[in-house]
Write a structure and sequence with these properties.
Structural class: mainly alpha
Number of helices: 19
Order of helices and strands: HHHHHHHHHHHHHHHHHHH
Radius of gyration: 22 Å
Oligomer: single chain
Length: about 500
């Protein structure tokens, strides 16, 4: 076969790519619902298992820690050994852990199950991004990421509502178990479809390397250094919500030193003629560095919106978990529709889609503050938030998936999953830091005022963070406009 013919074969889209995407969407839906559904069920878990506040905190923290720590290493393993294999492994681990969580008889068993759930989610998520990069080309890639983003919006919005329904039907003491059992049929469906539709071989040796050479390319020392660095950075912020020991903050400089050591190791590893876990040269690709910075800042702010809204609706106004979950439905629908539209137009409009999305988010935040203040003065209803938060949803759909498309467009395919893992790790770190800081600001204001002012202060800080992400988006837009070959 000629080199030209071989190149044409590689460029030819896989005929089964839409079926592959369907499998990815089913599994991503499961993993994201598994995250958002738990938040509304914490009181039920506490009552059903007799858990302390610290134990309940670890139900959240355990998942977040393992998920964030394994993302990049799992993405690199998928690049080397087969994204399909790592994806299936992740779905299987997540599903089995969901069974264990639903059957938990004490807080420790549930916490361990949540750690394993986070591991499964960390294995499967970067493979989803990498497989879209692998199997889709041109405008179809943007459309695929748009469908991916639509599923994210639906899952995040449906999770709290589904959790409220299951607790209502199953009872406060035992209803929380069904929040985990509901993952099982979805996971089994994803596994069945993956085995039926994923291309073979599922497990392969990267570029014909021997198993020993491929294992060396996995860069175990680099994976360990980066994992420890992420753990050291994440843990203080995650545990800050549980009034943990101040000594935990000493881990932050340790994390910075570990990160510096990891970067030095990766450069040395590459200089030795070996393939590093992350080729740091990708950060010299402006589209990747801008996009990764933008999404990290964006998640630093935006993920606290729903934490504050849940506190406001339930603790501030006395609504049930089910009612609190309902407030996000228009947001989820708007996010899904916007992501689908943005996916089809992102290659034509480029970074303008993302910039416009963040402007919509800022408008939604400002209008939501207005609603909260009007309700506080007795001249409005909190249910107007159904409309104002829909603007946040429109923006969310126009930011996350389009940014993914633009950020990964110039990343070499052999680093598709690990680069996606880097982006998602930035999102996890941003989420943990943001929730810790923004909720701390709200709870600092609360004793001296009321819930309306506390949420207003939190939303104001979120707005400032989103503005900083918007500034990065504008910089990238100007850079692309100067280069006539990039979409603007």
């Amino acid at each position: 076969m000629s080199a030209a013919q071989d190149q044409r074969d590689r460029d030819e889209p896989d005929p089964g790519r839409w079926r592959i995407l369907a499998v990815l969407l089913v599994a991503i839906f499961m993993s994201l619902v598994g995250v958002s559904i738990v938040n509304v069920g914490l009181p039920s878990i506490q009552q059903g298992l007799g858990a302390s506040q610290s134990q309940i905190q670890w139900v959240l923290s355990g998942y977040a820690l393992t998920f964030g720590v394994v993302l990049v290493a799992a993405g690199r393993a998928g690049d080397l050994f087969g994204r399909g294999f790592l994806f299936i492994l992740g779905v299987a681990v997540f599903t089995l852990a969901s069974v264990a969580a639903g059957l938990a008889t004490d807080p420790m068993m549930l916490t361990i199950a949540r750690f394993v759930q986070g591991l499964g989610s960390g294995l499967l998520n970067p493979q989803g991004v990498g497989m879209i990069q692998q199997y889709f080309r041109g405008p179809e890639r943007g459309k695929a990421f748009g469908m991916f983003g639509s599923m994210v919006g639906i899952a995040v919005g449906v999770g709290p509502l589904l959790g409220g329904v299951l607790i209502h039907l199953g009872g406060v003491a035992q209803g929380w178990r069904w929040m985990f059992f509901v993952n099982v049929p979805v996971g089994l469906l994803a596994l069945a479809l993956a085995f039926a539709w994923f291309p073979r071989p599922l497990l392969h040796q990267h570029r014909g390397r021997t198993a020993r050479e491929a294992l060396s390319a996995l860069d175990p020392i680099g994976a360990l250094l980066l994992g420890l660095a992420i753990l050291a950075v994440l843990l203080p912020f995650i545990e800050a919500r549980a009034a943990a020991s101040p000594l935990l903050w000493a881990l932050l400089p340790v994390g910075v030193l570990l990160l510096a050591g990891w970067m030095r190791w990766e450069r040395r590893y590459k200089a030795g003629g070996r393939l590093p876990m992350v080729d740091l040269a990708i950060f010299r690709v402006r589209s990747f560095s801008y996009g990764t910075t933008l999404i990290g800042l964006y998640f630093l702010g935006i993920t606290s919106v729903w934490v504050l809204i849940a506190l406001y609706m339930q603790q501030g106004l006395g609504h049930t978990a089910l009612e609190s979950g309902m407030i996000g439905l228009p947001n989820a629908l708007a996010s899904a529709l916007a992501a689908n539209w943005a996916g089809r137009h992102v290659l034509r409009l480029g970074r303008k889609v993302v910039v416009g999305g963040m402007i919509s988010v800022l408008l939604g935040l400002a209008l939501s503050v207005l609603v909260i203040e009007l309700e506080d003065h007795g001249i409005g209803s909190e249910w107007w938030l159904l409309a104002t938060l829909a603007f946040v949803g429109l923006g969310q759909g126009a930011v996350v998936s389009p940014n993914q498309t633009l950020t990964l467009a110039e990343v070499p395919l052999e680093y598709a999953s690990s680069s996606g893992g880097i982006m998602q790790t930035g999102q996890r770190i941003g989420t943990s830091i943001g929730i810790a800081i923004i909720t701390a600001v709200s709870f600092t204001v609360l004793p001296h005022s009321d819930w309306a002012q506390a949420i207003t202060a939190g939303f104001g800080l979120i707005g400032l963070v989103v503005i900083s992400a918007l500034a990065v988006g504008v910089l990238d837009l100007r850079h692309r406009q100067k280069n006539s070959t990039d979409p603007a």
